[in-house]
Every structure is written in C-alpha cells, then in structure tokens.
Amino acid sequence: MTPSAAPKGTPLIREEAVCSLQKKDINMANCIEPGDNPDLTEERRKATFSVRSMSEFIFNGEDKLAKRMEIAAYVDATQDLHDPRPVEFMSRVERHDNSTRKV
C-alpha cells in the first residue's frame, strides 16, 4: 500500500511486518501476502536469508532495531503524528503547517 493510498489513520508500517521481525528465524517466504506482485512473490520464495538478521545488520544491531521498532509503534499509535491527508497532495504552506503541527 502506498502512502497516498492509505486511508486516514492507517499506519504506514504493516503490523504483520513488525510482528514478523519479532521472530528470530523469519525468512522472506513468510512475507508473501495474497495480492502481492507475482515477481516479488517469486523473488521472496528464492531468498535464503533471515529477515530479522538482515534488519539487525542494516540498523547496526539488535538493540537499535528494537528501539526503531518501538519508535515506529509509538508513531503508528499516536494519531497526532498522522497526516490529515497525503503530503503529495498538500501545498507547500500546508506541508509546512503540517510539519510544525507534529513538532
């Protein structure tokens, strides 16, 4: 789901993706969902690495990944931090006002 297609109040990080990172030995085949692009589905089935291990590598360790996931969960749960409508459809002034509202 693209940010512009997300209904108001919908978190941009899918809960399934966040939950799947809790499991230590998750692989890309578990990230396949109905309606996914067939090419992506094929590539995910070929993957041989752990999603959790890759995430820990990208974010420089398990503790930093856990902190990032905690922050993402907080942002998703806090309605004041959600955009009233997609920023792609806001004017420059509206984007500025929206950003200052969040601070």
From TrEMBL:
GO terms for molecular function: flavin adenine dinucleotide binding; oxidoreductase activity, acting on the CH-CH group of donors. It comes from the Eukaryota. Residues 51-102 form the Acyl-coenzyme A oxidase N-terminal domain. Pfam families: Acyl-CoA_ox_N. InterPro entries: Acyl-CoA_ox_N (IPR029320), AcylCoA_DH/ox_N_sf (IPR037069). This is Acyl-coenzyme A oxidase N-terminal domain-containing protein.
